[in-house]
Amino acid sequence: MTTSPVKPRDLRDFYENPAVPVASGTPRSLRQARMLARALGPATGSTGNGARTVLDIGCGDGTAAATAAPLLPGHRVIGVDWSQDALRRARTRIPYAVRGELTGGGLPFAAESADAVLFSEVIEHLVDPDAALDEIRRVLRPGGHLMLSTPNLAAWYNRALLLAGVQPVFSEVSLRGIHGRPGKEVVGHLRLYTPRALREFVAASGFTVVRLEGAPFHGVPRLLRPLDRLACARPQLASILLLHARRT
């Protein structure tokens, strides 16, 4: 069993702990950024659509936004997080990072003010994902893009682990330690989705699902990474789900 260095009092205390990982793997971030770049198109030129506003909600340390920015020239990427520790780190990587929450007072943006939202490895941490998607839908313009990524409960190795009676990777039963599953880090996952469940949930929240792709997981053991990359060809088996949806 691996334990976390500090016993958290609650979820907020947990995520303000600098020892809790807040960055996602670069391969996942690159794949998601390429999906968004294709969706938005160029910001300038005779066929460009003008500069767009992209919100990276739950930006963590800013790694995903910093990875996406070079692929989105001319577009404005703004990081959003409620963790002050995460924002301090994000501001070293991206020019704009502001504090905001998906619940309570809501995001500090007007209705229909954003063209796209990056929602990377966040939904699995939420107590109320319904309210979160409602708030994202509020700030997106009609037809705006939602780029959501989350671990796949039905990843190829999780299917084998469940058959063996082992707790699936990504799932957690405690904020204080690892119990009954592979892995070394406690990251605070509360919910996990299969591809079918994610599609249905997003569609029920007022979005039209455009595309679902797979991405590798940076925590897979080195010897198994070629298999993990191959699994990306079938999102049903991939480690990470990348979903592109548009506000209906």
Write out the CATH superfamily name: Vaccinia Virus protein VP39
CATH topology: Rossmann fold
Number of strands: 7
Using only C-alpha atoms, the radius of gyration works out to 18 Å
Helical region count?
A: 8
Global mean pLDDT: 90
For the record, give the distance between the C-alpha atoms at the N and C termini, rounded to a whole number: 45 Å
* Spatial strand order of the main sheet: 3-2-1-4-5-7-6
Task: Report the β-strand fraction as a percent range.
Answer: 15-25%
Shape: globular
- What's the CATH first level? Alpha Beta
Q: Report the major sheet.
A: 7 strands, mixed
CATH architecture descriptor text:
3-Layer(aba) Sandwich
Domain count: the total is: 1
Q: Helical percent range?
A: 25-40%
Organism: Streptomyces tuirus
Keywords: Methyltransferase, Transferase
Pfam families: Methyltransf_23
GO molecular function: methyltransferase activity
